[in-house]
Amino acid sequence: MAVDSSQSLAKAADAPGARGRGRRTGDSGKTPGRLRRSLSTHWYAWSMVAPVVVVIGVIIGYPLVRGLYLSTTDANEANVERTIGMNHIPATYKSVGLDNYTAVLSDGVFWDRLTWTIVWTVSCVAISFALGLALANMLNRKLAGRSLYRMALILPWAVPAFVSVFTWRLLFNEKNGILNKILAGGGIDAIPWLNDPTWAKLSVITVNVWLGVPFMLVAMLGGLQSIPGELYEAAEMDGANAWQRFRHITLPGLRTVSSTVILISSIWTFNMFPVIFLLTRGGPGDATEILVTYAYRLSFVVSPRDFAGSAAWGVIILALLSLFAVVYRRALRKQGEVW
User: Fold this and answer.
1) 205-238 tens-digit pLDDT
2) How many whole angstroms separate alpha carbon 326 and alpha carbon 267?
3) What share of the chain is helix, strand, coil (3-state, %, to 5)?
4) Please, which residues have CB within 8 angstroms of residue 206's CB and are 6 or more apart in sequence?
5) Strand, coil or helix: what is 339?
6) Is the pTM of this model over 0.90?
7) Residue 339 contacts residue 261 (beta carbons within 8 Å)
8) How many CB atoms lie within 10 A of CB 32?
9) Of 247, 208, 249, the residue nearest 126 (C-alpha)
């Protein structure tokens, strides 16, 4: 006996309790928009997230919009709104369009700072990643006192960054520093760690690697512990040596974790203001000055303070990091990583 399937499906769809019925707009024939459906379905989640969104909007959103606006003006210390004693002086700065961006991008200072910032970022991230991965592999094995070693290696991360930087500054002191005293004991002349451009660059990289290795270590150790041990046992039974197991099991297993921590660490290092400022203040001269420290110098050090120029530098830094994140994400997608 033949069954009219089209009529049966139509009746089932018109049933009051039919699953998936989504028309709530009466006879208009229009379905709710995606945002409206999301709000009606996940209203509790949105209500929990709303306070955080508001706080982030106030703390980050307003300064960002304000910075974008100032970057299109000629605002400086002499023409902004200010109060001197009982006198209130209104702002007199005016819009200049994109002149600040043109001035920054056509200035050789920007390209010099950008080159060193890229060298600084790549060096710190690469060395930190390599050391973190090596230490994580060692601590992933059964060792006597493994917990003690882990605590000792994570300690630099627990200490506030400014305390670590000041400690390293004492170690790098050319006359009374411990490092030069050790070298003097071996008959080696003192090294001007922070007074020579080349040594100063090596010094700031060393300190930042010291601060960054614990983060890499923790992330890599977590990734290693998520790799099934059966894979290593099977590979060992098939005759794979240690290098082959590391290349074909460990590295692919850490791909997701490593791609994430490299991106985060790159952004952190690119904007690592405390290490540069507290250790060398961008010196000697301007040898170790990166983009963010120069933007700070324009806004708080030079006279008159150039608020518009500093804002333009900040917007350019944000654009560079956003571009890097987009390109990096697309490269990961091509490799099959989606996050």
Assistant:
1) 999 999 999 999 999 998 998 898 898 889 989 8
2) 12
3) 70, 0, 30
4) 168
5) coil
6) no
7) no
8) 14
9) 208
Residue 302 CA: distances (Å) to CA of 66, 77, 113, 125, 295: 21, 10, 17, 31, 10
Q: What is the DSSP letter of 28?
A: G
Q: What are the structure tokens assigned to 202, written together? A: 């090596």
Which distant-in-sequence residues (6+ apart) come within 8 Å of 294 by Cβ? 109, 113, 282, 286, 313
> Both tokens of residue 188?
């080696």
Q: Coil, strand or helix: which one is 87? A: strand
Query: Among 194, 167, 165, which residue's Cα sits nearest to residue 282?
Result: 194
Closest by CA to 307, choosing from 75, 58, 42, 95, is 75
Which tokens go with 185? 């004991």
How high is the pLDDT of residue 278? 92
Phi and psi of 42, rounded to 5°?
-115, 40
Q: How far apart, in whole angstroms, are the C-alpha atoms of residue 319 and residue 231?
A: 42
